[in-house]
Amino acid sequence: MAMERRSLAMLPLGLFAILLGQLSSWCFAGIGRLPSRRGLPLCSVAVSEVTTEVRGKEGSESYRRYFFAKDQEISPWHDLPLSSEVEGEYFMVTEIPKNTKPKMEIATKESMNPIAQDIKKGKLREYHGPIYWNYGYLPQTWEDPQAEHPELKVKGDNDPVDVVEIGSRAHEQGEIVKVKVLGALAMIDDGELDWKILAIATDDPMAAELSSLKDVETKLPGYISGIREWFRWYKLPDGKPLNSFGFGEQPLDAPEAIKVIEETHGFWKKLREKGDSNLWVG
Fold first, then answer.
1. Pick from 89, 167, 255, 274: most CB atoms within 10 A?
2. What one-character DSSP code corresponds to residue 85?
3. How many helices (H) and strands (E) does the chain have?
C-alpha cells in the first residue's frame, strides 16, 4: 500500500502566528466543537498543522488521500476552517491541480471524506483535456439539494461549493490555500445549481491587483469567459449536453459571491445538525 504524509499549509509565517494565537476566531458563524469521537475541538485544527496521507495506488480505484491534524484523522470538509482573519478571504482545499486531467474530488459519502478519483460507469474519470486552473472546494459549505434558488429555480448539487483559483502556481493535491474571492458563476449542470467561486490565492503575485471582476477583465482579459466556456463544454465528449449559466450567463461580483458562500455555509450547518443518510457528516 502506497503511503505518503506531508504538510500542506501554504501561509505566511506571520499569519501562522496570528492563527495559532487566536484559534477561537476560527469558530466561524458560531460553529461549535468536533464530536467526541475524535476528541479534538474544531478551533484546534490549525491549517499549519494539517498533513495528508495517501493510501492505495495512484490512478486506481483504491487511491485515497486522508487528512490529519495533531496525528488525528480529520474531515477536510467538516473540520477545516472556512473563514480566515480577512474579510472576503477563505480557505480552499485543492482537489485538482491546474494542468492535470484526473477528476479528483472529495468523497462526501465516505468516512472522513478523503480525496478520491471519481468513478462513472465503472471507470475512473479524467477530463478530456487538462483543466487550466486550480480546482477545489470551500470547507464547511454545502449546496442543499432541497433548497431551490428563488430566481434560477434550480436546487443545489449536494456537494461543497467549488472554487476555481486563477493564480499562476499549480497547487498540490490536497493543499489548503487561502484565497481572495473575486466573483462567481452560477453553472447549471443537469438541472442542478453548481456554483463556481472565482478566486485567487492571496500569495499570488497578481493578488494585490485583483479585487473585482472588473480588475480580472482588465488585468487578465479572457480569463472569465475562458472559465465559463471550459465548464460549458467539458462534458460534451461524454455525450452530455452543454452546461448553462444563470443570470444571463454573466458572473456575479465578489459581494454577491460572498453571499453565496454565507448561504451555503448556513446549509452546511443545518446538514451537520440534522445529518444525512447518504452523506458522511461526522
1. 167
2. S
3. 4, 18
